[in-house]
């Protein structure tokens, strides 16, 4: 019989499923462990990135289960989103049908991988029994004032025909999905007030020590806290005031212009008062048509227009021109700045282009005051204050705090904290998403759909429009409804929610997947939350991983989660990419390896083993056909090791105490077995270095295969070794381990067996005999533990009573220790 994975794997998959081996319940004696992978989008089929993600997750789930934890390990589908609409257009199918077909196919693929999910808990975000609660959560946000509607300049992708959240605008202004340059539009949109949580989202990052520092840093930058001063300039000859936000109030004496964003409402007011009003308005609308990259990326062409108005610098009464500038953005700070060309590079470029004055007010700590006319770049570093009246001579940091205080005392401004984080724009003009559960009534305005009427289900009999527009506004039967408040005619909201909302709470639903009177039960979430180990891609660092943290905090404040449950994911592992021939596997590169094909050809165990062995989980994994074959051959050898020795193994005596084994080689083998358990345990649990764990298991397997002796003593050690090997391999390659475990006559599944514990006696090294010499002459032979360092050996030997006796009355000049060999003492003659 050869290693026939083709029959072994389905056999055990069925056995696990039939016995409910991986079903878990809330509560019990064991400690809990919640192991979670980022759930997949049902795009059609699994790719290698999925396979890697789930191989890592399943390894950890199986390992912790064997370690005695009650392990929640669920899976589901992030099933709303644009690709379903595109497929609908392309193939003339319903988005729902396409999605559900993919879900079923990918489920069968996941089962073929042998992942130990509790399948009863599968959730699909497009299922009305799920999105009913997404809508319910939206209403709770709405009631708390955390969901609101406002007109705002929003990111618009012309190609996807939809609005994008800031987080979905990537690479300096492109759509995260299709790469088109994003433009701005003014639209009424729904927002979630994530900025209310900006400070807490930032503060809690420090406590997330189980996260990669890189991700925490990305979130810190994304939240972008800035401390500064909001100050106002009066506009000469009017009663208007311009508010500006600056982080560098220390540069106030160097302000040579004020600049407004094109969208700043003051632009219209100034235009109305100006003889060149039309020119101002035209320039502003030209800027508004530029994309954010054209306006604000480094090196982008700075463009401006002098309004002809002057502002007054409050500190010295100086008149400074007011400009409109394309690099000032409306959605940061106040949408206006004080321009300090000497100390801000963008202002510097702007000033040089339009011949504005450059006045240095900071000099390098060890240098001269720069010359404003000949400077070639702004001096942005800290330094010493100059040209700044009574503040001259102060170092920058001190000047900032003293001048901020001065502004507050004078009533010219106040300290302010600004965040780069914006409120989360969640409405999408798309069909395949969770409908936002509100209606519009002419009499009552915005009316939330009563909770008992949820879900607001998507109409199924629609045709996705050519060009990608949503069919919802056209679905008259669906749109026209009754106002829940007054009973009069009303229209449904036709925007759907950003799918990132659906994925912001799915990990909570897994704990109570069947709950029908709440999104999840307090009893379940208090037991299972937080997720102990989360595994997924780094690309979600500023999207999903911030949104999920925000939802967790709001749910906790709403009383849906325990008050101390403020963070969803205790440990985060961001897996590397799968690459082939040096680049990321992708259809466009034509270097895709299909998981299905690998599994058919070599089996799931081989695929999993290769993936876990080829690289540490956080590093990129270089796909290698040779490596896959190597992994496959290794499993073949393990299989034969058991098969060839089956009778002897079955009748082998129980494990023996190391002290009672006669043969030194067998004692060494027994030590190797226990050292391997010890190392593999630490590699998985502490280091997350699964590749080195596999390497140790390969070493052990080789040593067991090389054993020639067939004495009862040898067979006892061999059996112990093989069982240990199988137990340690089981989380990596569960099917073949189940099979061999059963062949050896063990009761019960290996998946549910206990993880082996190393015998501490076996972790100690053998004893060795060392000699004790005085002036080079052997005086004693002593037995000590092998492997002691020089210092340790010297200490042990010098404390031996016989040695102490030998040295009585002698004058020791020097001690020389050679590990495992000797200690020589030089004494005065
Ligand atoms: C004067 C100044 C002098 C500035 C100087 C910087 C250096 P962070 O750190 O990111 O918060 N700014 C403010 N609002 C802006 C907007 N809507 N569009 C473009 N730029 C804006 O950046 C704060 C600084 O960015 C502010 O401090 C302001 O320029 C600019 F030597 O004010 B500063
Ligand atoms: Zn009404």
From TrEMBL:
- Motif 'KMSKS' region: list the residue ranges: 584-588
Q: Which gene encodes it?
A: leuS
Instruction: List the protein's name.
Output: Leucine--tRNA ligase
Instruction: Write out the GO biological process terms.
Output: leucyl-tRNA aminoacylation
Q: Name one GO cellular component term.
A: cytosol
Species of provenance: Thermanaerovibrio velox DSM 12556
Q: Name one GO molecular function term.
A: aminoacyl-tRNA deacylase activity
Q: Which InterPro entries match?
A: aa-tRNA-synth_I_CS, aa-tRNA-synth_Ia, Leu-tRNA-ligase, Leu_tRNA-synth_edit, M/V/L/I-tRNA-synth_anticd-bd, Methionyl/Leucyl_tRNA_Synth, Rossmann-like_a/b/a_fold, tRNAsynth_Ia_anticodon-bd
Residues where ATP binds: 587
What does the record give as EC number? 6.1.1.4
């Amino acid at each position: 019989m050869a290693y026939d994975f083709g029959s072994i794997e389905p056999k055990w998959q069925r056995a696990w499923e039939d016995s409910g081996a991986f079903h878990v319940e809330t509560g019990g004696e064991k400690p809990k462990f919640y192991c979670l992978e980022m759930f997949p989008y049902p795009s059609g089929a699994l790719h290698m990135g999925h396979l890697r993600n789930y191989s890592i997750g399943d390894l950890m789930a199986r390992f912790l289960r064997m370690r005695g934890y009650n392990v929640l390990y669920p899976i589901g589908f992030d099933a709303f989103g644009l690709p379903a609409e595109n497929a609908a257009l392309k193939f003339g199918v319903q988005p729902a049908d396409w999605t559900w077909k993919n879900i079923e196919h990918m489920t069968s693929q996941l089962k073929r991988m042998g992942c130990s999910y509790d399948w009863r808990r599968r959730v699909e975000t497009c299922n009305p029994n799920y999105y009913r609660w997404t809508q319910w959560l939206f209403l709770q946000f709405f009631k708390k004032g955390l969901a609101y509607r406002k007109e705002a300049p929003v990111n618009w992708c012309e190609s996807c025909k939809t609005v994008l959240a800031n987080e979905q605008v990537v690479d300096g202004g492109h759509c995260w999905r299709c790469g088109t340059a994003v433009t701005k539009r003014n639209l009424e949109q729904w927002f979630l007030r994530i900025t209310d949580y900006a400070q807490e989202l930032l503060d809690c990052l420090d406590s997330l020590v189980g996260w990669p520092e890189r991700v925490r840093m990305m979130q810190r930058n994304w939240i972008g806290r800035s401390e500064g001063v909001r100050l106002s300039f009066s506009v000469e000859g009017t009663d208007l005031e311009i508010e500006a936000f600056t982080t560098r109030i220390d540069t106030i004496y160097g302000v040579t212009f004020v600049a407004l964003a094109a969208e700043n409402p003051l632009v219209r007011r100034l235009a109305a008062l100006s003889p060149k009003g039309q020119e101002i308005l035209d320039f502003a609308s030209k800027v508004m048509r530029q994309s954010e990259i054209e306006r604000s990326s480094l090196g982008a062409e700075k463009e401006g227009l002098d309004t002809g108005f002057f502002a007054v610098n409050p500190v010295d009464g100086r008149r400074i021109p007011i400009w409109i500038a394309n690099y000032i953005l409306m959605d940061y700070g106040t949408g206006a700045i004080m321009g300090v060309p000497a100390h801000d590079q963008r202002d510097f470029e702007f000033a040089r282009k339009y011949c504005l004055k450059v006045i240095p007010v900071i000099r390098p700590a060890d240098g001269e005051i720069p010359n404003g006319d000949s400077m070639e770049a702004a001096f942005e570093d800290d330094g010493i204050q100059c040209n700044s009246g009574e503040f001259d001579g102060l170092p920058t940091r001190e000047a900032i705090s003293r001048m901020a205080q001065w502004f507050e005392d004078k009533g010219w401004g106040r300290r302010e904290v600004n965040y780069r984080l914006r409120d989360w724009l969640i409405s999408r003009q798309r069909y395949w998403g969770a409908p936002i559960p509100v209606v519009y009534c002419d009499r009552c305005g915005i009316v939330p759909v009563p909770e008992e009427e949820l879900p607001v289900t998507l109409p199924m009999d629609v045709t996705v429009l050519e060009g990608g527009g949503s069919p919802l506004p056209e679905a008259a039967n669906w749109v026209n409804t009754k106002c829940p408040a007054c009973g009069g005619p009303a229209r449904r909201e036709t925007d759907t929610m950003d799918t990132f909302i659906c994925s912001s709470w799915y990990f909570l639903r897994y704990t109570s997947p069947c709950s029908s009177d709440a999104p999840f039960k307090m009893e379940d979430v208090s037991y299972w939350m937080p997720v102990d180990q989360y595994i997924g891609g780094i690309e979600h660092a500023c999207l999903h991983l911030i949104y999920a943290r925000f939802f967790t905090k709001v749910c906790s404040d709403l009383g849906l989660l325990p008050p101390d449950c403020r963070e969803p994911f205790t440990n985060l592992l961001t897996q590397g990419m799968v690459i082939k021939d040096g680049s990321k596997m992708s259809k466009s590169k034509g270097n895709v390896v299909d998981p299905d094909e690998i599994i058919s050809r070599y089996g799931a165990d081989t695929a999993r083993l290769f993936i876990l062995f080829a690289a540490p989980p956080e590093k990129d994994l270089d796909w290698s056909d040779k490596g896959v074959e190597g992994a496959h051959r290794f499993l073949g050898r393990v299989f034969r090791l058991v098969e060839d020795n089956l009778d002897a193994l079955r009748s082998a005596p129980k494990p023996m105490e190391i002290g009672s084994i006669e043969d030194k080689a067998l004692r060494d083998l027994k030590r190797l077995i226990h050292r391997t358990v010890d190392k593999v345990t630490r590699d998985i649990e502490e280091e997350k270095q699964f590749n080195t764990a596999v390497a140790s298991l390969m070493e052990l397997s080789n040593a067991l295969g090389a054993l020639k002796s067939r004495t009862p003593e040898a067979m006892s050690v061999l059996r112990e070794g093989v069982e240990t090997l199988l137990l340690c391999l089981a989380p990596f390659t569960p099917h073949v381990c189940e099979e061999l475990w059963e062949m050896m006559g063990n009761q019960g599944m290996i998946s549910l067996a206990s993880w082996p514990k190393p015998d501490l006696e076996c972790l100690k090294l053998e004893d060795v005999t060392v000699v004790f010499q005085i002036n080079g002459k052997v005086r004693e032979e002593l037995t000590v533990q092998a492997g002691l360092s020089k210092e340790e050996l010297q200490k042990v030997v010098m404390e031996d009573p016989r040695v102490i006796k030998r040295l009585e009355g002698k004058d020791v000049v020097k001690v020389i220790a050679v590990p495992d060999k000797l200690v020589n003492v030089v004494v005065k003659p």
